[in-house]
Amino acid sequence: METKDLLAETFKFQGHICWASAMGTRVGLVALRELGVQRTGTSDELHCIVEIGDNHGAQCFVDGVQYSTGCTFGKGDIEKAGWGKLAIMLINKNKEQAIRVSYKPGRHKMIAESSFMSKRTQGVPPTQIPQEEAWEMVNMLWEAPESEVMKVGTVEPYPYEDFGEVMGLLPCANCGEMVSKMYLRVVGDNHMCIPCSGYGL
Ligand SMILES: [Zn+2]
Ligand SMILES: [Zn+2]
Hints:
By secondary structure, the protein is α+β, with helices and mostly antiparallel strands. The protein has helices at 3-14, 19-35, 61-69, 108-112, 115-121, 131-142, 146-149, 194-197, and strands at 46-50, 78-80, 87-92, 97-103, 150-152, 156-157, 169-171, 178-180, 185-187, 190-192. The radius of gyration is 20 Å and the shape is globular.
């Protein structure tokens, strides 16, 4: 896939066009390239630690990372460090190697002064800003020299312990909904989901 198409797909996936998701997409692609691996479709190849936190701007960065690397919330091969930073550690589990790539603010001022961002700071939702203005801003990062917009670490050894996954779902004796076996709780002679069991996590 052309990388520009990948970017358009990322925006479709996350629902709007923004600089943070574009940057995350690019950071993900560079991490894959440096590790010499492809975007993953399974949970046993890569693991990604993203350094964003909660309730802050530019978290969309991780939507880009998910789309370009294939490490996703559902497959469980992505986790959040919670440091409020736009950076990732991408781990090749089989080779036990990792690389850290972070956003470098070489064009941050340019982005902040774009017509898209000035509308955003005035409170206009991203979905209400014309697409051309969004792409204009995104291109500032997408077409920038790599060294200006990101810091690329070196591939380092990274011991990785894989806990694998427990297969199988069973119905809860009370609500009948399917539950991962690992999450069933024993209530008398029955097995129930956590909400039905009344137990805490
Ligand atoms: Zn966004
Ligand atoms: Zn239940």
